[in-house]
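re: ur question from yesterday

yeah so i grabbed the chain u mentioned. its 130 aa long if i counted rite. heres the sequnce exactly as i have it in my notes:
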Amino acid sequence: MVVATTLPRPGLEAHREAISLSFPELVSRLTALIGRKLTAYVAGVKDVRTVDGWKKGNSPYGEAEDRLRLTFQVVRTLGEHDSQRIVQAWLTGVNPELGDRIPLRLLREGDLNIVGPEVMAAVRAFIAGG
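ran it thru and got these structure tokens back, copy pasting raw so excuse formatting
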């Protein structure tokens, strides 16, 4: 008898959440995981009051929503395997999988079509490395 098995796919549930949560809920969850300052930073806003407004239903502008959804996916995926402290350190540290670039800066400043796959590949490499 052959039994089909499904291999776990790191980040699949995080991806589903990142695309399905309402924006206010996504921002609330992200700030609970990485804090208001890092959330504001990756969104490209200078004031955490903007983040608070998003949690209350204010509309984002520019690429803020896309950047925060991807960041949530990254954080949620990492959080399935490591502590909040490790996740924050991973986000803010120089990463050899990313050419010694800082993931959070890439998520804030990079072209998401380019850095999105790069950062997610680095997340999966980190998880695989244990």
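noticed a couple things. The chain has eight helices and no strands. also The two ends are 33 Å apart (CA to CA).
anyway ttyl
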